[in-house]
Amino acid sequence: MDLLSVHWIYLVGILVIILTMLARKNVVVPAIVMTFIVGLFFTGSFVSGIQTVFSASLVAAGELFNIFLIIAIMTALLRSLDSIGANEQMIRPFSKVMKNATASYVIILIVTYGISLFFWPTLLCH
Fold first, then answer.
1. What are phi and psi of 117, to 5 degrees?
2. DSSP code per residue over 5-32
3. Mapping DSSP to helix (H, G, I), strand (E, B) and coil, where does residue 96 land?
4. Per-domain residue ranges of the chain
5. What is the pLDDT along the chain (126 residues), one digit of tens a residue?
């Protein structure tokens, strides 16, 4: 498969975005501009280049919506646990061994790993 000019422009766009992130600047404008340029070179039409920007935004929004939804649900669940004090009750049995930050981290790691074993899909569940 031969690399077309569009592939090289896409690679340049990725490099521009990475350099922009390394410079700690906003990547929105370079991403939109490079999306337009890739669409322009791919289709050969100015109007299609603009449509590419909007299509890419819709696809990204559709993909990110699921992530935002999960974050919102988890935040709501954590706040509801906090409001009834359940988070403190879950930690209370381990508070005697949680004397410092390192011990607390290790205990939470072990307990979380133990709990995750019950939810991890295994080969036994066919």
1. -65, -25
2. HHHHHHHHHHHHHHHHHHTT---HHHHH
3. coil
4. 88-126
5. 567 889 999 999 999 999 999 999 999 999 999 999 999 999 999 999 999 999 999 999 988 998 999 999 999 998 998 899 887 888 788 788 888 899 889 988 998 888 888 876 665 555
Quickly tell me which residue has 């569940």 as its tokens. Answer: 125
Q: Which residue has the tokens 């322009």?
A: 40
**Integer Cα distance of 24 and 21 in angstroms:** 5
Q: What 3-state class would DSSP assign to 3?
A: coil
Alpha-carbon torsion angle 104, 84, 66, 57, nearest 10:
-100
Cα–Cα distance, 5 to 64 (Å, whole number): 29
Q: Record the tokens describing residue 23, joined without a space.
A: 């410079």
